[in-house]
Amino acid sequence: MQFRHLRYFARIVEAGSFSRAAALIHIAQPALSKQIAELEDEFGVTLLHRSARGVTPTAAGEVLYQEALKLIRQVDDLPAIVRSSQGDIQGVVCFGMASTMAPALTGKMMEICRATLPKVTLRFVTGDSETLREKVASKAIDLAIVFENSPETGFTREVLFRQRLYLASRMEGKLARSTTLAEMAQLPLMLPTPTNVLRKALDREFAAAGLQAEPVAESDLFDVVLSAVETGLGHAVLPKGDFSDMPGHPDIATTPIEPPIYLTACLITSRDKPPTRAAAAIEAQLLGFLRSQVGQSAFSGAEWVDAEP
Question: How many CB atoms lie within 10 A of CB 152?
Answer without folding.
Answer: 17
